[in-house]
Amino acid sequence: MGCQSLDDIYELYLLGVLSAEESAEVSAHVRRGCPYCLDRLRESAQVVSLVALNTLPAPPSARHKAALLERVKRPKGAH
Amino acid sequence: MVARIAGRDEKALAELYDLVAPRLLGLIQRILPERREAEEVLERVFVRLWKEAPELDRHQVGASVWMTLAARSAALERLRALRGAAAGSAPALVLPSRAWLPRRHEARGLDERQALLKKVLRQLPKEQLAALELAFFGGWSEAELAAKLRQPAGKVRAELRAGMRFLRHRLRAVLGTWAASL
Fold this sequence. Notes:
The complex is a heterodimer of chains A (79) and B (182). By secondary structure, chain A is mainly alpha-helical. Helix content of chain A is 57%, strand content 0%. Chain A is built from four helices and no strands. At the A-B interface, helix 1, helix 2, helix 3 and helix 4 of A face helix 2, helix 3, helix 4, helix 5 and helix 6 of B.
């Protein structure tokens, strides 16, 4: 599988719609770490994330932020 | 911002929360409408960011795209746990490094042009947008999408590819990276 033949596949790969076999094939290709594939994957991640723009913001409840900040303050293993 | 969070700056985490939590919760609720479930997933995403920030910072990863993809992935994982086989079953991705994640300057470009990019999304042909949204928010594989849309798998793939190609070309034009990518 050549890098350029994957041009239209990277987004579908990150979107997760490929079959397990196809996805494994692309993963094996990506693991070679060629700069072209990594550039295209970085771009594809941006492209895929655009789909999320079609949502309305939903402000979290007031106590959510406080609970989160409290949780990260706790040392590891504390309850 | 990721650098400050990597340095265990809780104030930076709070600032990032104010900036992106409403958008992320909106995204998570498209996948998991139940509020309590969605807020739990949102918390998980921020805790994951807190833990992984040092590594993300080392690779100069921008927060926004990473958080969008992490929120989607966590919400779909929860949806699958709740619904079992009835939820989308597209395989989870396990990539070996962070090198594929957009860098800070790339994520910043996207954040700064969000209003324009929203318009781009609305320019997509209706069938392509429907297929992309079903895949993104439903987590369905291509074969499952074909069954849901009552279309041949080949047509579904063609819609998804055309939709993504449209977005990619528009993104390059909006970010001014068209020439650089040739």
